[in-house]
Write a structure and sequence with these properties.
It is a single chain. This protein is mainly alpha-helical. It has a single domain, classed as Orthogonal Bundle (Arc Repressor Mutant, subunit A). It is built from 6 helices and 2 strands. It has a two-stranded antiparallel sheet with strand order 1-2. Strand 1 and strand 2 form a beta hairpin. The relative contact order is 0.17.
Length: 141
Protein backbone atom coordinates (compact mmCIF):
# COMPACT_ATOMS: atom_id res chain seq x y z
CA UNK A 1 0.00 0.00 0.00
CA UNK A 2 1.30 3.44 -0.84
CA UNK A 3 0.60 6.19 1.68
CA UNK A 4 3.69 8.26 2.29
CA UNK A 5 4.70 10.10 5.42
CA UNK A 6 3.25 13.26 3.89
CA UNK A 7 -0.28 11.87 4.13
CA UNK A 8 0.24 10.35 7.57
CA UNK A 9 1.87 13.50 8.95
CA UNK A 10 -0.86 15.71 7.51
CA UNK A 11 -3.49 13.67 9.36
CA UNK A 12 -1.40 13.74 12.56
CA UNK A 13 -0.91 17.50 12.35
CA UNK A 14 -4.60 18.14 11.68
CA UNK A 15 -5.56 15.89 14.61
CA UNK A 16 -3.17 17.89 16.81
CA UNK A 17 -4.68 21.15 15.58
CA UNK A 18 -8.21 19.86 16.27
CA UNK A 19 -7.23 18.61 19.72
CA UNK A 20 -5.85 21.99 20.79
CA UNK A 21 -8.27 24.18 18.78
CA UNK A 22 -9.69 25.82 21.90
CA UNK A 23 -6.24 27.20 22.78
CA UNK A 24 -6.28 29.66 19.88
CA UNK A 25 -3.81 29.63 17.01
CA UNK A 26 -1.31 26.77 17.24
CA UNK A 27 2.26 27.24 16.08
CA UNK A 28 3.86 24.69 13.79
CA UNK A 29 6.70 24.51 16.33
CA UNK A 30 4.24 23.23 18.95
CA UNK A 31 2.84 20.64 16.55
CA UNK A 32 6.38 19.68 15.53
CA UNK A 33 7.40 19.07 19.13
CA UNK A 34 4.25 17.19 20.14
CA UNK A 35 4.11 14.98 17.05
CA UNK A 36 7.86 14.65 16.41
CA UNK A 37 7.55 15.92 12.83
CA UNK A 38 10.18 18.10 11.19
CA UNK A 39 9.21 21.78 11.22
CA UNK A 40 10.34 22.22 7.61
CA UNK A 41 8.17 19.27 6.55
CA UNK A 42 5.17 20.68 8.44
CA UNK A 43 5.61 24.01 6.67
CA UNK A 44 5.33 22.26 3.30
CA UNK A 45 2.28 20.31 4.43
CA UNK A 46 0.52 23.37 5.84
CA UNK A 47 0.95 25.33 2.61
CA UNK A 48 -1.08 22.61 0.89
CA UNK A 49 -3.65 22.40 3.69
CA UNK A 50 -4.06 26.19 3.57
CA UNK A 51 -4.48 26.14 -0.23
CA UNK A 52 -7.33 23.65 0.22
CA UNK A 53 -8.96 25.88 2.85
CA UNK A 54 -8.61 23.33 5.64
CA UNK A 55 -6.48 25.62 7.80
CA UNK A 56 -6.01 29.36 8.16
CA UNK A 57 -2.86 31.16 9.25
CA UNK A 58 -2.94 33.89 11.86
CA UNK A 59 -0.08 36.39 11.89
CA UNK A 60 1.55 37.96 14.90
CA UNK A 61 3.30 37.05 18.13
CA UNK A 62 0.44 34.79 19.19
CA UNK A 63 -0.14 33.59 15.66
CA UNK A 64 -0.18 30.13 14.22
CA UNK A 65 -2.80 28.00 12.52
CA UNK A 66 -6.44 27.33 13.17
CA UNK A 67 -8.91 25.04 11.44
CA UNK A 68 -10.79 26.80 8.66
CA UNK A 69 -13.82 24.54 9.16
CA UNK A 70 -14.97 22.43 12.09
CA UNK A 71 -13.42 19.00 12.72
CA UNK A 72 -16.88 17.46 12.29
CA UNK A 73 -16.85 18.54 8.64
CA UNK A 74 -13.32 17.48 7.71
CA UNK A 75 -13.02 13.97 6.32
CA UNK A 76 -9.69 12.17 6.56
CA UNK A 77 -9.90 11.78 2.77
CA UNK A 78 -9.97 15.61 2.48
CA UNK A 79 -6.69 15.85 4.39
CA UNK A 80 -4.97 13.11 2.40
CA UNK A 81 -6.01 14.54 -0.95
CA UNK A 82 -5.07 18.08 0.13
CA UNK A 83 -1.42 17.03 0.33
CA UNK A 84 -1.64 15.32 -3.08
CA UNK A 85 -1.70 11.83 -1.64
CA UNK A 86 -3.74 8.87 -2.70
CA UNK A 87 -4.03 5.42 -1.27
CA UNK A 88 -3.05 2.88 -3.89
CA UNK A 89 -2.46 -0.84 -3.72
CA UNK A 90 -2.49 -1.25 -7.51
CA UNK A 91 0.56 -0.65 -9.66
CA UNK A 92 -1.47 -0.10 -12.80
CA UNK A 93 -3.84 2.69 -13.70
CA UNK A 94 -7.48 1.62 -13.90
CA UNK A 95 -8.07 3.57 -17.10
CA UNK A 96 -4.95 2.23 -18.81
CA UNK A 97 -5.28 -0.04 -21.82
CA UNK A 98 -2.27 -1.96 -20.57
CA UNK A 99 -2.64 -4.34 -17.66
CA UNK A 100 -0.73 -4.56 -14.42
CA UNK A 101 2.23 -6.36 -15.99
CA UNK A 102 2.50 -4.04 -19.01
CA UNK A 103 0.62 -6.65 -20.99
CA UNK A 104 -2.86 -6.47 -22.41
CA UNK A 105 -4.52 -8.20 -19.47
CA UNK A 106 -4.86 -7.42 -15.80
CA UNK A 107 -2.82 -9.44 -13.32
CA UNK A 108 -4.52 -12.35 -11.59
CA UNK A 109 -4.91 -10.41 -8.30
CA UNK A 110 -5.98 -7.10 -9.86
CA UNK A 111 -9.57 -7.22 -8.60
CA UNK A 112 -8.44 -8.08 -5.06
CA UNK A 113 -6.21 -4.99 -4.84
CA UNK A 114 -8.81 -2.83 -6.54
CA UNK A 115 -11.40 -3.84 -3.93
CA UNK A 116 -8.92 -3.12 -1.13
CA UNK A 117 -8.34 0.37 -2.58
CA UNK A 118 -12.08 0.96 -2.56
CA UNK A 119 -12.44 -0.20 1.07
CA UNK A 120 -9.58 1.98 2.28
CA UNK A 121 -10.79 5.05 0.41
CA UNK A 122 -14.37 4.51 1.60
CA UNK A 123 -13.07 4.23 5.17
CA UNK A 124 -11.15 7.53 4.88
CA UNK A 125 -14.25 9.08 3.34
CA UNK A 126 -16.38 8.09 6.37
CA UNK A 127 -13.99 9.02 9.18
CA UNK A 128 -14.06 12.66 10.26
CA UNK A 129 -11.26 14.52 12.00
CA UNK A 130 -13.49 14.87 15.06
CA UNK A 131 -13.89 11.06 15.24
CA UNK A 132 -10.12 10.70 15.38
CA UNK A 133 -9.77 13.34 18.11
CA UNK A 134 -12.56 11.85 20.23
CA UNK A 135 -11.13 8.35 19.95
CA UNK A 136 -7.68 9.60 20.97
CA UNK A 137 -9.09 11.50 23.97
CA UNK A 138 -10.97 8.37 25.09
CA UNK A 139 -7.82 6.25 24.84
CA UNK A 140 -5.75 8.74 26.85
CA UNK A 141 -8.11 8.95 29.83
Amino acid sequence: MKLTTKGRYAVMAMADLATFKDNGPISLTDISLRQNISLAYLEQIFIKLKNRNLVKSIRGAKGGYILEISPEEIKISNIISAVDEEVKTLNCKKESKKGCNNKFSKCITHNLWDQLDQHINNFFEKVKLQDLVKKNQTLNK
